[in-house]
Amino acid sequence: MPTIDEKRVYTDNTGTETVFVATSVGVVSVSVSDDLVGGFGVAHRCSARDVAVERGTADPTVAVAAEDDVFAAPAADVDPESPEAATFEATGFGPASAVGFDGSTLLAADGDGRVARYEAVDGDTEGDGGGIGDGKWTTVGTVGAVRALDGDLAAAADGVHRVTDDGLTPAGLDDARDVVVGADAAVAPLAATGTGLFKLGNGWMEELTGAFDAVAASADGRRHAVSEGDLFARGDDGEWAAVPIPVEESVVAVAHGVATTYAVTDAGTFLVRADRSEEGERPDPSWRHQVLGLRDVGGVAVA
Fold this sequence. Notes:
With 303 residues, this protein is an all-beta fold. The protein has one helix spanning 4-12; strands at 16-23, 26-33, 36-44, 48-53, 61-66, 70-74, 89-90, 98-102, 105-109, 114-120, 135-142, 146-150, 153-156, 159-164, 167-172, 176-180, 190-193, 196-201, 203-209, 214-217, 223-227, 230-234, 240-243, 251-256, 260-265, 269-274, 288-291, 299-302. It is globular, with a radius of gyration of 18 Å. It comes from Halopelagius longus.
C-alpha cells in the first residue's frame, strides 16, 4: 500500500499515465504516476480481447476489440477515478480478436483472419469532443487467424503480414502471436512467434529461441518480451535476460509508458516499474504491484 508520503507525491505529480487493460469483464483503466498506482476501475464492460491507444497525438483514441464489436473513445475522457463516465462508441465491425492503429487509422481483425480499416465518412475525422468519429469499415484482406495488430503489421496464425493500400502482403515467419513496429522509424519491428522472438532487419533475425506470446518496444530502446509466462528484457548491451517479478504468477502482457514498464499477469496482478526519472536517471529497478483481481487478460496499452 502507498505510504502517506507516496500519496502526496502522487497527488502533486501531473505526469500521470492511464493504462488500459483488456479483460473478460471489460476494459480496466489504471492511473499511474511514476511507479505509484492510483485509481482503477472498469471503463467499459464487455468481453475485451485486445486494446490499443493511438500514438503521436495529444488527444489519442483508445480502441477495444471485444467479442461483439470494436469500441472506441477519447482516452482523455476516461478517468480511472470514475471510469464508467466515459462513453465507448460501437463501430460496427462485429466480433474482433485484435485492434491497432497505423498512424491515425484504426485497424481491426477477427479470428477468421479478416483485417479491416476504419475510414471516415463525409469528411468526419473525429466525433464530438474527439474520438473516432463517424465512419465505415473497409476490408483490407483475409489471412490466418489474427492475434495482434500494430502499425502496418498484423500477427497471424500464418505469419506476419503487412497492411498496404492494396491489401495484405506476407512478411514472413509463421505462428505469429504478437508484433510491434516500435514508437518511431528507428526502432526495428519485433515479432513474437511459437518458435522464437524475431527482429526485422535484413529479413527476420532470431533474437531468442522458444515460444513467445507478447512483445513491447519503446523509442528510447526498451525491449520486453513474454515467453511462457516469463518476462524478458533486452539490456543496454543488447543481450536479453529473464526479469524477475515479485509475484509467482505468469506474465501475459507488457507495455511501455514514457519512463515506465507495465506488465499484467494471468492472475490479474498489475506490475509497474519506473525505468528512469524525468531527469533520465535510472532509479532502483524494483517492481510495485497492485492486484486487480481480473482474469483473461488480452492486452495492455498506455495513454
